[in-house]
Specification:
With 311 residues, the protein is an all-alpha fold. The chain folds into two domains: 2-154, no CATH class; 159-266. Helix content is 85%, strand content 0%. It has twelve helices and no strands. It has helices at residues 2-24, 29-37, 44-67, 74-86, 94-115, 117-124, 128-177, 182-193, 198-212, 217-228, 231-246, 250-310. The protein starts with a helix and ends with a helix.
């Protein structure tokens, strides 16, 4: 009975894969080839680029349709939405595509291990029950991997913004002291800091775009802190909101906050350098010291054994 169940699951997986590949194949390859041969055509590169974009859009639609079948709790969906925004994935329907990718990777890994079960059982000598357990673990891994990839992308964006935020504040201080308003200073800094940190330039530019669209400045600044999911960015938004509300000097507040951010960045570097000795302890003890002991003490032990063996 177990063999029949595994065979049915493998057949379903193969059928789904064939259907997916069929959706990704262009419908009119002859038309594309004729366009490539036309004298006034766009060329092979443009046609291939459009073909890849069309395939990516089909795959995205399939994943979105698959993801809409999964209805999570509102709290889980809001947490997932914040995760996607922190990673820079703000296109409409991205959450549904994310859920679809999780389901697809879980099914592919799970059915992949089931398809390899005869080979694994023959090579490793594992029983069928153990193969099923491995397939379940593979499906669980496929469910978790997309979340890890999105979180890694979000952390990389946060590190880039942390490196560029003090420099952006210094530029903002220069712009404000030169006579620019806060909105014009944000736009100018967004253009200049994009050469060093494109992510931070994009986020600062979004503040100005929201203000131009009619959003109050306070809400736009709070949205900036929420999008970036950074404590330093949230504190910057709070400083600008309080400065705008109480009418204090923007340049002085920004200069003080920039010094605070530089101090925090230096403290983070000192903390990371202090952790280096602890992190090097395990490779030294388990990898380097045993090799040194073998090289240094090994010849003496072999000589001692040779002498004692002569008796």
């Amino acid at each position: 009975m177990m063999i029949y169940v595994v065979a049915s699951l493998i057949a379903l997986a193969v059928a789904g894969l064939v259907m997916l590949l069929g959706e990704l194949v262009p419908d009119q390859p002859d038309v594309i080839r004729r366009l490539e041969r036309m004298p006034g055509g766009e060329g092979i590169g443009a046609v291939d680029r459009r073909r890849r974009e069309a395939q990516a859009e089909r795959l995205r639609e399939l994943l979105a349709a698959l993801g809409t079948r999964l209805h999570g709790e509102p709290k889980l969906q809001s947490k997932t939405q914040r995760l996607m925004v922190a990673a820079g994935l703000v296109r409409p329907g991205t959450v549904a595509v994310f859920y679809g990718a999780r389901i697809a990777t879980a099914l592919i890994l799970g059915f992949g291990f089931l398809a390899l079960s005869p080979t694994l059982g023959r090579v490793l000598g594992l029983p069928q029950s153990m193969i099923i357990v491995i397939a379940i673990w593979g499906a669980a891994l496929g469910w978790v991997v997309p979340t890890l990839l999105v979180a890694a992308r979000g952390n990389a964006r946060k590190r880039e913004m942390l490196r560029g935020l003090p420099d952006a504040l210094d530029l903002m201080v220069v712009c404000v002291e030169a006579g620019l308003g806060l909105n014009q200073a944000l736009q100018r800094v967004a253009e200049e800091i994009a050469l060093v940190s494109p992510v931070l330039g994009e986020q600062l530019g979004l503040i100005n775009l929201e203000i131009r669209a009619g959003t109050p400045r306070e809400e736009a600044l709070r949205a900036f802190g929420t999008r970036t999911d950074l404590e330093d960015a949230q504190s910057l938004a709070t400083v600008l909101i309080q400065t705008d509300r109480f009418g204090t000097s923007v340049a002085q507040a920004l200069r003080t906050h920039a010094e605070t951010l530089r101090t925090k960045r230096r403290q983070r570097v000192e903390e990371a350098s202090a952790k280096t000795a602890i992190k090097m302890l395990f490779p030294l003890v388990f990898c380097i010291f045993p090799a040194l002991f073998i090289v240094i003490i090994g010849p003496g032990i072999l000589s001692a054994l040779k002498v004692l063996g002569g008796f």
